[in-house]
Amino acid sequence: MSRAIETSIFTEMTELARRTGAINLGQGVPDLPSPPALLKDVSEAVLAGENQYPPAVGAPALRTAVAAHQLRRYGLTYDPDGEVLVTTGATEALASALLALAGPGDDVLTLDPCYDAYPAGARLAGARLVTVPLTLDGDRFALDPDALCAAVTPRTRLLVLNTPHNPTGTVLSPAELGAVAELACERDLTVVTDEVYEHLTYDGLPHVPVASLPGMRERTVTISSAGKTFSVTGWKVGWVTGPARLVATVASVKQFLTYASGTPYQAAIARALDAVEPWAAALRETLLAGRDLLGEGLTAAGLRPYRAEAGYFVQADVRPWGYDGDDAGYRFCRELPERGGVVAIPTSAFRQATPDPAPWLVRFSFCRRADSLREAVARLATASEGGAPAREA
Ligand code: PMP
Ligand code: GLN
Asked: What distance in Å separates the CA atoms of residue 269 and residue 89, rounded to the nearest whole number?
């Protein structure tokens, strides 16, 4: 049986932006600066000849910096030797974790909508994906703890969590996280938690790792990455922290996906991670301004944005432009480059439930420079002046 998987929505929409010259607010690909010291350190490492395989589990300096980061920020203690694993981005960490910890006959539970690597990873592992919806509560996407409990089956092995959440921009609240932790302990679930946007929360909301809740450290594999935190998504350096037995299992798979990752990047990212706080504070300011600029622009253009508590993305309802029906978001996004010179992503691409309960949601990214967001907003304002093109017969 072939396990081929369809082309990712990010590839499709970024190619559409390239072809049409539209501003790419689809894929979360920042055009923001990275820490100058980080760029210099990597260049120097390359020129100094640090270009051969690092240890498969990652350079000691980066494993030490990751452990120090988890302790300093969250009070979580991990041994750099055995409880930290460096991966080729969070993507490889997710694939390794799903392949290592789930298999045929297992259910993998996650939130819906969700980042596309979770259904793909579950499928590669031969496991079944089961989802619980995040539903609109006012202008925020919320998790219903009862629905989460009801979605657990006797076959549930893994719970894949994501906070801050892509694509909704939700930060799971203390009550929501508490319910997850209680359920995981009660049903003896292993939790894989994707926290790549850990530094990018707004309006004073803290990031609380699920591993820091009572009873959770021993059953949680936490994943993060340098890509978002330092605006270096092309470098693909991520990491896993967790108890030794889980990290060893994940590492056993990782060694046959890529073996090891990006030598010159690792020591440089270690230094950047040691000094991440002031950098992340400034990045949050930039992204918050971008979020507000885009949100106001969407509103002015007659669309209806929801609250983005974190991350790179804002959700908007496109029905005010006349797009309705079960392909509303897809039609909007296919037509927007021609109509408005902007690319966005239909939230349906992240949706597992069929039919999609909210096919009119579209995800716009705000991880762009202010001038590019201003131009996008101006284009949306102009485009808003026409109604939705007539449906093809
Ligand atoms: N998880 C989430 C929620 C993401 O949005 C992304 C996209 N960057 C990733 C994982 C992948 O991260 P990386 O680029 O480090 O592989
Ligand atoms: N994480 C990014 C997003 O959600 C894109 C990642 C990718 O292109 N695979 O847009």
From this structure: 12
